[in-house]
Specification:
The complex is a heterodimer of chains A (about 150) and B (about 290). Chain A is α+β, with helices and mostly antiparallel strands. Helices cover about 55% and strands about 20% of the residues of chain A. In chain A, strands 1-2-3 form a three-stranded antiparallel beta sheet. The longest helix of chain A has about 50 residues, at about 5-55. The termini of chain A are far apart. With about 290 residues, chain B is mainly α. Chain B has a two-stranded antiparallel sheet with strand order 1-2. In chain B, helix 2 packs across helix 3 (about 60-75) and helix 5 crosses helix 9. The longest helix of chain B has about 30 residues, at about 1-35. Classes of the chains: A alpha+beta (about 150), B mainly alpha (about 290).
């Protein structure tokens, strides 16, 4: 019985070991990351306090801007909202020709754009075309938003 | 008496035809509806390697979900995904069918890869997988973006022809297409890194094809000759992960000697449709 399925049993054991190792890795990392997050939170608080002092020093003119650029399968349209000179939100208006799994991964760049207040961010690996398209579209929108 | 034998033969031929057409229909459906499943799943593998290398958390991204779904599916049903749903596998089948047709028309045969070499080339895909995993782990995979034949294929398949910087990728894709003309399932067997992962995935024993050797006609090798992976069907074995579950051998056997379990052969129409339906449902739930 065991011999008949030895191949299956051996592989199943390997899978369990790999999955277990990955879960343990994730568990250990998330503990570490939680600690790090606390530290950055404190840093951020001091930064916002500083930003409040010199308000409205952002790069951009307040308003809502749109941009459009080519992604993987077609055009991606984005909307950038600027408030108090800073990028407040970036949303995707339409991306009909993008593959859903890819677009879902690529939207991670949106948060990074808001965080860094620009498009100098890494594309999402595995979804390079879609995320590059988003960045290009945001670039165009920001060009309009640049203070003259 | 002979009439009954003839009738049986005719029935068998018809069955074979129906099975073939159903397979082609399912392949076409997935090819046009979900052409990016294989790249999405492999992006999951690359993502995990990259996160491990960078010391980042592995999160259940869309890619990881597709990967886990396909791995679970393959554990349950064998590599039905490879045989029936993978767009690149279907491309290989299409190219080979076309090449066979042309070879018949011009009455010339392309040279074939010797069997011994084919058995050795099987291991090449593990090297491809390993190489890509290392590059992802080190975080330098992005530097080799223009070398991926899959990127070129997926761009061309949505009529996106902006291929500047993809010279190497185009070259590799052309080489693969030539290989596909020469050898059934050339890419899947020898090069596919996702196939390498599936080939070492544990498959539930009742989803692996078996053969009752004692009932075989002496020296008949029709199942091996018809197998796109040159497999000697023998149940759970180190090479059973190479089987694409295409089911061609089941129809090729003159004694109906290949089967999954005592009662189920494996190419029943209801079973094939059920497997395809489950895969489709899985994809739709994930919103791929």
């Amino acid at each position: 019985m065991v011999k008949k399925y030895s191949n299956f049993i051996f592989r199943m054991l390997n899978v369990l070991i790999i999955v277990g190792a990955l879960l343990f890795y994730n568990y250990a990392r998330s503990n570490q990351i939680e600690k790090d997050a606390l530290i950055t939170q404190i840093n951020q608080l001091t930064q916002t306090a500083q930003a409040a002092v010199n308000e409205d020093t952002g790069l951009y003119e307040d308003g809502t801007y749109e941009g459009e650029a080519k992604g993987y399968g077609g055009m991606i349209q984005v909307e950038v909202v600027v408030a108090k000179g800073n990028i407040e939100t970036v949303t995707i208006v339409s991306a009909e020709k993008e593959d859903k799994a890819y677009l879902d991964s690529a939207v991670a760049v949106l948060d990074e754009i808001v965080e860094t207040q620009g498009t100098e961010v890494d594309t999402v690996s595995g979804a390079t075309f879609s995320s590059q398209g988003i960045l290009d579209a945001v670039d165009l929108a920001l060009e309009e938003a640049m203070k003259k | 008496m002979t009439d009954i034998v003839k009738q049986k033969k005719r029935d068998k031929k018809l069955d074979k035809k129906i099975h073939r057409y159903i397979r082609i229909a399912i392949q076409l459906l997935f090819f046009f509806w979900m052409p990016s499943l294989f790249t999405a799943a492999f992006a999951g593998i690359k993502y995990v390697a990259g996160q491990l290398g960078a010391g980042e958390l592995i999160e259940p991204t869309a890619f990881v979900k597709v990967l886990v779904m396909l791995l679970l599916y393959t554990m349950l049903f064998g590599r039905f995904f490879c045989g029936y749903a993978c767009a690149f596998g279907s491309l290989g089948d299409g190219v080979y069918a076309l090449s066979e047709l042309v070879q018949k028309r011009v009455k010339r045969k392309l040279p074939s890869i010797p069997l011994k070499v084919r058995y050795k080339l099987r291991y090449l895909k593990f090297a491809v997988l390993f190489l890509i995993l290392i590059l992802c782990f080190l975080g330098i995979y992005g530097n080799f973006r223009g070398t991926s034949p899959w990127d070129v294929f997926s761009k061309v398949s949505v009529a996106n022809f902006e291929l500047a910087g993809y010279g190497i990728g185009i070259g590799i894709l052309v080489a693969i297409l030539i290989g596909m003309c020469v050898q059934k399932r050339f890419f899947c067997r020898f090069l596919c890194p996702m196939g390498a992962v599936f080939a070492i995935t544990p498959i539930l024993p009742f989803s692996i094809l078996k053969r009752d050797r004692s009932a075989c006609i002496n020296k008949c090798t029709r199942c091996i000759q018809n197998c796109p992976a040159d497999l000697e069907i023998q149940g759970d074995s180190p090479t059973s992960g190479e089987c694409f579950m295409c089911g061609v051998c089941i129809d090729a056997c003159p004694k109906a000697n290949l089967h999954l379990t005592q009662k189920v052969k494996g190419n029943e129409i209801w079973l094939v449709l059920l497997k395809a339906g489950i895969l489709l449902a899985g994809c739709l739930v994930l919103g791929v």
